[in-house]
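## Example record

The block below lists the input lines for one assembly entry, exactly as stored, with component labels intact.
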Amino acid sequence: MTHMSDLTLHIETPLVESLPLSRKVQGRVWLKMESLQPSGSFKLRGIGNACRTHAASGAKGFLCSSGGNAGLAVAYSGRRLEIPVTVVVPETTSGRAIELIEQEAARVVVRGASWQEAHEYATDALEAGWAYIHPFDDPLLWTGHATVIDEAVRQGVSPDAVVVSVGGGGLLCGVIEGLRRNALPSVPVIAVETKGAASLSESLRQHRNSALERITSIATSLGAKKVADAAYACAVEHGVHSHVVSDNQALSACLRFSRDHRVLVEPACGASLAAVYAPVESLKGRRNILVIVCGGAGVTIEQLERWRKELRNKTAGGDA
Ligand SMILES: *Cc1c(COP(=O)(O)O)cnc(C)c1O
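Predicted structure tokens for the full assembly:
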């Protein structure tokens, strides 16, 4: 078989047993190291799949709205497929993030106060023949994200629990699709969010998919005000265990993880790690826990330090 779909943009990531995390639970903890994807996060699995599919049907360009890991994954995919990319980012996007996207030779357009406005501008500005790549609400993404489970199984771990961070729910949809297609449909999934970005948790509580008024968490990659309707439906159907950690817990997990495994990840990923460093109830008795180390390119030692100081000041001010 040699056709377009053979050009896989993501890489196979290591599956590493974590002794420090395994000590926190009764079973073994396996880390799927998505932070090692060339774009810095798991996003390349799904976005690579979407870009490849659009390229095969003749897309002239890729348009995306995300100042974060999705924008970076589209920029990477476009460079590899030799297709031009424009990324619309909101005004809140850091200089560092813009630099990373431009490093992939994509054009960056700054528009709007939030992701929602950048997204609306981008969908309005879509040129004929170009494909719009949504950061989380697209079945092509979920099918691509599902390869993270295919790989873990192929690498020899049949998980009896999966821990995953949730923003707009694209990764969650992919993980559940992956479990289903590997004959593991009833493996429990622990869906972790941070306080101030917990749109799935709030929706499950209200028994309907609903939007948060605003995002207040430092875990900006989890900052979708509302998860995709399909993600909500999938979470209900699968019966995911929803869990919310504080920014402080997510950040502390990032710092501990950097010492334990010498790898930097964003607080969006720290959220999942925090649910294992202080194990949630639903991990009790599990023998093989798979943690999707979803990664994040927008992290540096300096940024982790800045957040730590900010959160410490906030706590000192009685705003814990
Ligand atoms: C995008 C992202 C998430 C959330 O993924 P969704 O598919 O939006 O739920 C979590 N962590 C990192 C590092 C991300 O880039």
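The chain has two domains: 4-42+140-316, 43-136. The longest strand covers residues 28-33.
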